[in-house]
Amino acid sequence: MLSKNIEAALNKQIRIEAESSQTYLSMACWAEVSGLEGISQFMYAQSDEERAHMLKLIKYVNERGGHAQITDLKAPKTSYTTFKEMFEALYEHEIFVSNSINELVHITFSEKDYATHNFLQWYVSEQIEEEATAKTILDKINLIGDDKGGLYLFDRDIQQITVTS
Ligand code: OFO
C-alpha cells in the first residue's frame, strides 16, 4: 500500500512523463514539417517511449492501492530556430527528468518504501541511457556545425543511434 505522500510524488512523475511524451511529439512534428524525416521518426519513437514510462507508473500506482491521476498538461513549445536548439532542449529535459526521478527515489528511501524504491531502479537506469543518447547526439551535432551535407547524413543516420525503451 502506498503512503499518500508517495502516491502524490508518483502522480507528479506520471504527469512529467506525459509532458515529456507531448514535448517529443511536438518536436517530431516540427522536424517533420521542416523536412527532417529521420529526426522526426526518432522523436516520434521518443514520444512513444515516454508514454510507456508513464503507463508503467500508472499501472504501479493502481496496483499498489493508489489512484493514478490523469491531468491536464502544460503545452509544449511548437517550434525551434534550429535542430541543434531542439536537441539541446531534449538533453536539458532529460536532465530535468533524471533530477525528478532522483528526488522520487530519495522520498521512497526516507519513507522506507523499499518496494517503490526497487520499482524506481528501472527509471534510474533508463535515465542514464537516455542522457547518454542525448549527449551522443549533441556531440555529433556540434561536429556537424552548419554543414548542410552533414545535416543530411545526420538526418539519414539518426535511426542507427541506439534508443532504448
Ligand atoms: Fe526520458 O523520461 Fe521517461 O523516464
TrEMBL record:
<comment type="function">
    <text>May alleviate iron toxicity in the presence of oxygen.</text>
</comment>
<keyword id="KW-0560">Oxidoreductase</keyword>
<keyword id="KW-0479">Metal-binding</keyword>
<feature type="binding site">
    <location>
        <position position="53"/>
    </location>
    <ligand>
        <name>Fe cation</name>
    </ligand>
</feature>
<dbReference type="Pfam" id="PF00210">
    <property type="entry name" value="Ferritin"/>
</dbReference>
<dbReference type="InterPro" id="IPR009078">
    <property type="entry name" value="Ferritin-like_SF"/>
</dbReference>
<dbReference type="InterPro" id="IPR001519">
    <property type="entry name" value="Ferritin"/>
</dbReference>
<dbReference type="InterPro" id="IPR009040">
    <property type="entry name" value="Ferritin-like_diiron"/>
</dbReference>
<feature type="binding site">
    <location>
        <position position="17"/>
    </location>
    <ligand>
        <name>Fe cation</name>
    </ligand>
</feature>
<dbReference type="InterPro" id="IPR012347">
    <property type="entry name" value="Ferritin-like"/>
</dbReference>
<keyword id="KW-0409">Iron storage</keyword>
<dbReference type="InterPro" id="IPR008331">
    <property type="entry name" value="Ferritin_DPS_dom"/>
</dbReference>
<feature type="binding site">
    <location>
        <position position="127"/>
    </location>
    <ligand>
        <name>Fe cation</name>
    </ligand>
</feature>
<dbReference type="GO" id="GO:0042802">
    <property type="term" value="F:identical protein binding"/>
</dbReference>
<protein>
    <recommendedName>
        <fullName>Ferritin</fullName>
        <ecNumber>1.16.3.2</ecNumber>
    </recommendedName>
</protein>
<feature type="binding site">
    <location>
        <position position="50"/>
    </location>
    <ligand>
        <name>Fe cation</name>
    </ligand>
</feature>
<keyword id="KW-0408">Iron</keyword>
<comment type="function">
    <text>Iron-storage protein.</text>
</comment>
<dbReference type="GO" id="GO:0016491">
    <property type="term" value="F:oxidoreductase activity"/>
</dbReference>
<feature type="domain" description="Ferritin-like diiron">
    <location>
        <begin position="1"/>
        <end position="145"/>
    </location>
</feature>
<dbReference type="InterPro" id="IPR041719">
    <property type="entry name" value="Ferritin_prok"/>
</dbReference>
<dbReference type="GO" id="GO:0006879">
    <property type="term" value="P:intracellular iron ion homeostasis"/>
</dbReference>
<dbReference type="GO" id="GO:0006826">
    <property type="term" value="P:iron ion transport"/>
</dbReference>
<dbReference type="GO" id="GO:0008198">
    <property type="term" value="F:ferrous iron binding"/>
</dbReference>
<comment type="similarity">
    <text>Belongs to the ferritin family. Prokaryotic subfamily.</text>
</comment>
<dbReference type="GO" id="GO:0008199">
    <property type="term" value="F:ferric iron binding"/>
</dbReference>
<feature type="binding site">
    <location>
        <position position="94"/>
    </location>
    <ligand>
        <name>Fe cation</name>
    </ligand>
</feature>
<keyword id="KW-0963">Cytoplasm</keyword>
<dbReference type="GO" id="GO:0005737">
    <property type="term" value="C:cytoplasm"/>
</dbReference>
